[in-house]
Amino acid sequence: MVLGKYDVVVVGGGHNGLVASIVLALHGARVALVESRGELGGLASDGVSLGVRYPRVAYSLGLFPRNLAKYIGVDLYLSAKLTNPSWVVVDGDSGETVFRWWVSEDALEEEFKEYGLGGEARDLVSLLRSWSECSDLILYSTEPPDLQGASAMLENCSPFLGEIASQRFDNGLGMMVPRDLWGILTYPGLEREPGLATLLNLWNKGLWYQLPKGWSPLMKRLEHRARELGVDIYLGVGTARPDIKEGRVVGVTAVGGKLAIESKAVLYSASLAAISNFLGDYIDLLDGLRLKELESAARSAVKPQRVTVVGRCEPKPPGGFNRNPPMIEVWGRGFWGEFAYPTLHDESRIPGSGHAVAFTGMAASRISDILAYSGLECLDKVESIDSVVQWIEFNNPSAHPNHLPYTGERILNKRPVEGWSDYRVEEIEGLYHGSASSHPGGQVSGVPGHNAAIKVLKDLGVRPSSPLARTS
Ligand SMILES: Cc1cc2nc3c(=O)[nH]c(=O)nc-3n(C[C@H](O)[C@H](O)[C@H](O)COP(=O)(O)OP(=O)(O)OC[C@H]3O[C@@H](n4cnc5c(N)ncnc54)[C@H](O)[C@@H]3O)c2cc1C
After folding, report:
1. Which of 156, 195, 340, 356 has the fewest Cβ atoms within 10 angstroms?
2. Cβ-proximal residues to 216 (8 Å cutoff; 6+ apart), any chain
3. How far apart are CA 372 and CA 315, in angstroms?
4. What is the Å distance from ligand 1's center to 44 Cα?
5. How do the domains of the chain map onto residue ranges?
6. 305 in contact with ligand 1, CB cutoff 6 A
7. Which of 278, 341, 443 to probe ligand 1 with, by most ligand atoms within 8 A of CB?
8. Superfamily of 2-38+235-301+401-459 according to CATH
9. Cβ(444) to ligand 1 under 6 A?
10. pLDDT tens-digit profile of 105-139?
11. Ligand 1 in reach of 12 Cβ (< 6 A)
12. Chain centroid offset of residue 391 CA
């Protein structure tokens, strides 16, 4: 089947591909969205077992900006009740609560004070607020600046924030809290990276929620919005590859010949660590040094340990949160991990169905520890989403949550590699990228999808009407 009526083909139906398609269609573009799997959502997909729907890879929502959700016309929280505190840290040995992240800023400030912070409590909370107020300048940039430029932009908005952004975490943001609290502000491995790498992981004041109903309601909303705007969605087509003539994209063909689409613009919204798989024989068109850099970035990636346990009995989460629990981070000796309890939420409980506990940790933890800390005493299924599963199912060979690492070497104008940060694959005309691999980075935020769509529109000669579109 050869189709020739599209302005843009979006390859990859993860949340970024969906957001990109919606933004393009909002501007009147004719869009085809092509997904290799039989379902949408990518790494933000659900599994089903014992009648329980649970988030399979990503498990919490925190970085999707409300202004983007509003612009694309999607209710982010789908009327779900948000827990307050939204997440807590529990000492794995004593079961005591170490820290609670409250929704209200005043309560959060009090919590920091209880932890022993004096005047820094207020400074920290207002710093996080100024980040959420000033960060649009950086996030929605389609030509991201370098770190110095980004700090200067932030400094104009909030002087202290500009300073914190360029300083290493351990010399800046990390100095504002005792060392034993660093785990609530940054991810392991980012302590020596610029504060901005950490801040990009803390958008929206770090309000992270678990998803009581899994991802599918949100993905369904995105799909519905895309279809409503006229996007044609092709699911289960297998790997799609670009067709290229004389260095320029002319369309997309699915391996196996299920689909061939003609188009002068292709937006690849999957992991750039899998670019060789996508380009096939055209891989030689890429600059050899860039390709090497991408390959080495993908190899050095952190690989989180992701395990979901499913059973018939009701779990008893650490910290004593039995109903509508927040997300629970456990700090134990040699153990760091986060637990989400989707089935303990009133609104998602289906009588007679089982329970799921989603665990993610950064260091390899023993399954016996994961089970013990989870509070689930019976067990019907253990599902581990390791790097092999991520490669085979989601085309994410680096198995990195953000497709590519999120260090100073790989943010802003260096993401995914220098020369490509404006969402164009420079060597191939008409080929764009917009996924967790692109600026401003990963997690379920939708921003890379939005920005890549804006870049495509500009190149097609369409003046973007998105209020979020920025050029500098
Ligand atoms: C273990 C783990 C835990 C995480 N936890 C969280 C969390 O709690 N909260 C959070 O916000 N983020 C989390 N993340 C990160 C988040 O899941 C990802 O950054 C985000 O989902 C990436 O979205 P995406 O749309 O950019 O790409 P993906 O979700 O990777 O989607 C890409 C899509 O493209 C398809 N595809 C690939 N190649 C092709 C091709 N050639 N042809 C056709 N289709 C193709 C794939 O099948 C896939 O559906 C986690 C990630 C991991 C790995």
Report:
1. 156
2. 41, 45, 46, 53
3. 11
4. 6
5. 2-38+235-301+401-459, 106-197
6. no
7. 443
8. FAD/NAD(P)-binding domain (3.50.50.60)
9. yes
10. 999 999 999 999 998 999 999 999 999 999 999 99
11. yes
12. 17
